[in-house]
Amino acid sequence: MADKRVNPYIVQPVMKALKVLELVAERGHDLSLTAISKRLSIPKTTTFRYLQTLTGAGFLVHDSRNDCYGIGPRFRTIAKADTSLHNLRSIARPLMLELVGEFNETVNLAIRGEGGNVVYVDIVEANRSLRIQGRVGDRHPMHSTALGKAILGFVPAAEQRSYLDQPLMEMTGRTLIDKSYIERQLREVAKLGYATEQGENEDGAMCVAAPILDETARAIAAVSVSAPLQRMPRSLAATAGLRLVGIAQRITTQLVNEYPV
Fold first, then answer.
1. 130, 84: one domain
2. Host domain of residue 171
3. Is 223 helix (H, G, I), strand (E, B) or coil?
4. What would you report as the CA-atom Rg of the chain, rounded to the nearest whole angstrom?
């Protein structure tokens, strides 16, 4: 017998507003207030408030000439971002597995998130009892991670300055927060094509990362290999860096060629 209990934490007006959004998105053409109200069995006055709220938030747009509602720019932006992320992960995953097979260390894929963080969107862990572990969805400051440094090294100077002008958090006792030193480090990243960090984001961890670029050569993501410090000497870090550059370039090429903007 099905469990008909209702989740007491669900906010019903929000759920109904989402139903309105879902209906407009699924139809593929603009709908009138009357049509939406009738289809969802919601009173017109209530439906109107939901439509106005969704329009104000940019998820819907109102065509005043026909008095109908259609999908708005905010919804399209989110849908496009979700598609782009899916494409990135689909292309990167086989190459990440290739890196894990070669180094037997954890491989991470991250994008630049809001608020000056990198957001982990895929992780393939090493087959070792002692390994660097993270979770998809984790966020870390850009300046304390190799992933973030790799991205910052391949964005316009104005974007670098904007990030470095804000207060920089110390994640460990080794986190670099001196602006001039980080700027020199980013110039080196741009020269080498990859970034490294030793214990700046997590004590005892070493990470090497290379940027994934768009068609304008601006970094949109990064891929990294992370390992305990004792398993990643400088020579191996350099080898991993060069390998990551090659992998990141392959991901970039596929993204640009297969999914042009």
1. yes
2. 78-258
3. strand
4. 23
Q: The domain that contains 42 carries what CATH number?
A: 1.10.10.10
**Which candidate, 155, 146, 175, 134, places its Cα nearest to that of 237?**
146
Q: How many domains does the chain have?
A: 2
**What pairs with residue 224 in β-bridges?**
108, 209
For residue 149, the model assigns a pLDDT of: 97
pLDDT for 1? 44
Determine the distance from the C-alpha atom of residue 77 to the mean position of all C-alpha atoms in its chain, rounded to a whole number.
14
Sheet with 205-213: list strands edge to edge: 139-141, 117-124, 106-112, 219-228, 205-213, 195-198
10-13: long-range pairs with CB below 8 Å, 24+? 13/50
Asked whether residue 150 is assigned to any structural domain, the reply reads yes
Opening angle at CA 19, ends 18 and 23, nearest 5: 115
Q: Say how far apart CA 52 and CA 135 lie, in whole Å.
A: 38
Looking at residue 229, its pLDDT comes to 87
24-55 b/e (C-beta count within 10 Å ≥ 16 → b): beeeeebbebebbbeebebeeeebeebbebbe
Tell me, yes or no, whether 172 lies in a domain: yes
Q: Please identify which residue in the block is written with the tokens 């000497």.
A: 233
Question: Splitting the chain (261 residues) into consecutive groups of 10 residues, what average pLDDT does each group show?
Answer: 67 92 87 94 95 94 92 83 85 95 94 87 83 82 96 94 92 91 94 94 93 93 93 92 97 84 54
pLDDT, position 76:
82
Residue carrying structure tokens 């002008």: 165
Cα distances (angstroms) measured from residue 256 to each of 47, 153, 173, 182, 203 = 42, 20, 39, 30, 36
Tokens of 213: 């670029």
